[in-house]
UniProtKB/TrEMBL annotation:
Residues 32-126 form the YchJ-like middle NTF2-like domain. Pfam families: YchJ_M-like. SUPFAM superfamilies: NTF2-like. This is UPF0225 protein PSU4_28630. Belongs to the UPF0225 family.
Amino acid sequence: MSGSSTPCPCGLPEPYADCCGRFHSGAASPSTAELLMRSRYSAFAVGDAGYLRRTWHPRTRPRRLTLDPDQVWTRLEIHSRSGGVLFNSHGIVEFSAHYTRAGRVGVLHEHSRFVREDGVWLYFDGTED
């Protein structure tokens, strides 16, 4: 998914290359917790485990991260956000990530916690409902 006109999996109207793709390629760092969350969802959708590890806080980052190639992420819904902007050091984003696996439809509903360190947002952890 690298075409300049390919829609971004995160649901924003920009093409992938101009939206989350720029974060995945290392050209920028998301400016809010919500943008980081969206870019991480897109990383799951395009299979970019390296980006997921790079944006995971070192205290909670798993040693290994293996993505399931049979799980296809189909849609992201942001339900709420708290903090996570320029003058915050913490943020919470509540979302539902829709997927299919083995012909079955599923939804991951999570409250994700983010921290900003040295001006960079990182995923800390999340609780699923």
